[in-house]
Each structure stands twice: as structure tokens, then as C-alpha cells.
Amino acid sequence: MQKERDKIDIESDEFQLELDKTRVFSEKVRKKMRFQPNPIESENERIFIGLTVNKLSKGKRYCPCFMVEGKTKEERKIANNRICPCNPALQNEIPKNGRCHCGIFCTQDYVDNFAKEEVKEAVHSTNLEKENLEKLFKKDEIESGNLMNLLDGRTQGLVDFLLIDVREEREYNIKKIIGQDYLIPTSNFYKGVNIISNQKEANIVVHCHSGARSVQVQQLMRSLGFITGINLKGGISNYGGDTE
């Protein structure tokens, strides 16, 4: 039985060697399937790091955009976790959306039609009204522009809420949303959530890289008694506001 590793040093020679193997692996998949990389190179690199961490810590390149269920090899196999390139991506996401959920495998059409600003449904407004902002807290999911409005509204004192990043620390160190309040990694969620256990009635927005892990955290928070847990659709990869 393989023991799961808790600590992975992404600066180590071991990690860098495995990271290079992940890059080669993804390129082989692309050539075989005739896929293209994500037009935003940093998005590819972020996923490569996540895949490599899972390879070293859990034994396989599990998709880093989803929670890996199970502590042992046998439990993870039963849980049917996504292993890159995963069947949902090959059978559904890429044919339907032009890219896998994480975005490292894209069709040529997707790349050709790519626009830097992917936010279509919500618009960032400079004319904010308290009533309209408060309505967003009744939603299960909000768009990038909605979050930008909420952050502006919070600065102006119109609304109050918590913005929580549920990605891993390595992802957070690469890029984060300005205005974020807490980092509570999904891998350590049950322990980390204790820091906000006294704020269960607060308005809360959660986000991850692409919106999958934060949906799972959203459900977990509800089971723990949190009143409001709103997911950021598309995660930070689709966010059009200020980041650092």
C-alpha cells in the first residue's frame, strides 16, 4: 500500500525532474489527440505543477482541479478520481466546450476563437447599488464581473462578505485575487475551516482555479452549517479583476 506524502518541495530537484516529465507527458497527449495547449501559458504551467504534486504525493497524475478522494491507493481507485487525461474531458468537455476542465488540452477552434476577456454574462459596473449587490448573495454561483462589483461594493461600504481561496498554497503563491480574505486549501479543508467557524452566518464567496473544487467546498460548508456559500464560476482562471 502506497503511503501518501504530505509535504512536497516544489523547489527540489526531485520535483523539477518530475515536472519536466509532466510537460513531456502532456505534449505526448496533445500530439496523439491533436490538441493544442491553453493560449495562456501560465494556465498550462499551473496545472502542470498540480499534476506533478499529485503524482509525487498520491502516485498518479490526478486532475488538480478536483478533490482527490481516498487516502489509500485502493480507496482512490474505488472513488473513480479523475486521472489525466480523464474520460470526462475526452468524452464530454473537449467535444462540447473545446477544452478540458483544467484547460491544458484545447481544440484548434477554441484557440483560434480565444479572447483574453472570457466574461460574457456579467459586466463590471461602476454604478453600484446596495440592493443589486445583496441579491448576488442569494445565488449559488456568480460570474467574474459580479465578484468585481462585490469587491468594489465592499470597498465603498455597501456590502460585507468573505472571499475565500480554496486552492493549494503553491497555486496561491503564483497568483491570487486582490481582496481575498482567507486561504483554506481543499486538501486541508476540515481543519482550515475552523478559522471561520464563528462566521457561519456571514456572506461567503469561494473560488479555486476553475470552479470545480470550490463547488465541492461549497457543498461541504453547507453541511457544516454555513448559511451563504457562493461559488465563483470559472474560478481565478476566468477572473477579469485585479490579481497579484
Concise structural overview:
With 244 residues, the protein is of the alpha/beta class.
Describe the overall structure.
- The structure is a single chain.
- Helix 1 (13-33) crosses helix 2 (41-58).
- The protein folds into two domains: 13-112, Ferredoxin thioredoxin reductase catalytic beta subunit (Ferredoxin Thioredoxin Reductase, Alpha-Beta Complex); 130-238, Rhodanese-like domain (Oxidized Rhodanese, domain 1, 3-Layer(aba) Sandwich), CATH 3.40.250.10.
- The chain is α/β, with parallel strands linked by helices.
- The model has no long low-confidence stretch (mean pLDDT 88).
- The protein is globular.
- The longest helix is centred in the N-terminal third of the chain and has 21 residues, at 13-33.
- It is 42% helix and 6% strand.
- The protein has a five-stranded parallel beta sheet with strand order 1-5-4-2-3.
SSE succession: HHHHHHEHEHEHEHE
Helix-residue proportion: 40-55%
Rg, rounded, reads 18 Å
**Largest sheet, described in full?**
5 strands, parallel
The overall strand count is 5
Structural class: alpha/beta
- The shape is globular
The CATH topology name of the largest domain reads Oxidized Rhodanese, domain 1
The total domain count is: 2
Q: How many angstroms separate the termini?
A: 41 Å
CATH class of the largest domain: Alpha Beta
Arrangement of strands in the largest sheet: 1-5-4-2-3
CATH homologous superfamily placement of the largest domain: Rhodanese-like domain
* Unreliable residue stretches: none
Q: Tell me the strand percentage band.
A: 5-15%
Give the second-level CATH assignment, the architecture of the largest domain. 3-Layer(aba) Sandwich
Mean pLDDT: 88
In DSSP terms, counting alpha (H) and pi (I) runs of 4 or more, how many helices? 10
